[in-house]
Amino acid sequence: MEQESKQKGKFLRTFIKERKQVGALAPSSRFLVKKMCDKIDFNSAKTIVEFGPGTGVFTEELLKRANPDCKIFVIELNSEFHSFLKNKFKDERIILLRESADNIDKILQDHKIGSADAILSSLPLAVIPEQIKKRIIIKAFDVLRKGGVYVQYQYSLNAKKLLELKFGSIHLNFVPINIPPAFVYTGIKS
Predict the structure, then answer these.
(1) Which of 103, 146, 161, 164 is deepest in the core (most CB within 10 A)?
(2) 140: left (phi over 0), alpha (psi -120 to 50) or beta
(3) Which residues, other chains included, contact 137 with Cβ-Cβ below 8 Å and sequence gap of 6+?
(4) Where are the domains of the chain?
């Protein structure tokens, strides 16, 4: 309970300070975490990428579900969240990087990884500049293996068209028990 309280406080302080990098007032609810992680096939996943982990609520669930030989690339641009995550997670499966998500192709290449099985994104697309946002989606699509899944949540439907440009059909879910309620977008690379 104390850890959860620390996470919420850290999240709110960083939200106030870094409005262009943090899109929420509080960490995601367990309902949103479950809905998003349920989209990933953990039985076969060898490489999972997480964009914008914040305080790591999705990262915790990824670690619980991932196989012992799965690599989890955790990409966090915000320096405060990066430091927080560095102290929080000591699991060998995590590769934590303070990078921009639009460098994912180079990141995987540098680690000699050919493709990702899944990408889970908490990036606040609504506040990311248009060119960077497009680059992130294009590169995310490019690094996914055929049949790989991209899971993104947002608080509006604004990102739907952008994701459809790359993924074609997007599956949409709604999670009302979250602050604020969230839409979950799922795209599969065909």
Answers:
(1) 103
(2) alpha
(3) 162, 163, 165, 166
(4) 2-188
